[in-house]
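Record copied across here:
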Amino acid sequence: LRLVALNLPLSGDMRADFHCFQQAQQAGLITTYRAFLSSHLQDLVTVVRKTDRDNLPIVNLKGETLFNNWESIFNGNGGQFNIHVPIYSFDGRNVMTDPFWPQKIIWHGSTTNGIRLVNNYCEAWHTADLAAMGQASPLKMGKLLDQKAYSCNNQFIVLCIENSFVSDPQG
């Protein structure tokens, strides 16, 4: 399952699932992508189909392994990953080094176990208000689920996860 960043940073008022779907389509990816965010409808840990959570690696856009499987992101260690494996945007830029994302921080709105934090998810990702807060993680810490709260007016990286695996019928 591929983990890919949106092509632009977003504040807390976002239509992230729509952007993930749209940018994946524009990049020629045929599977479904969902935002790597807890929402008012779903905890982050359940975004990927149950049948794909423990048997498929989580890779970047170029197929390099970030995590052994989906479940390993939520084992309580904050989603520790190798910072030397780049996270790419749908248009192929490395969000860790590209200046287009000046703040190397990702929104997630979750606990380290992928459960939604209703007080820290920018009112279900519907506000960029300075007074509202969203849970996010500085990527330089090497964790996707580090626990830091930021004002929703910040523009941070939004990740998308391929939420179901479809094998290539051509083999």
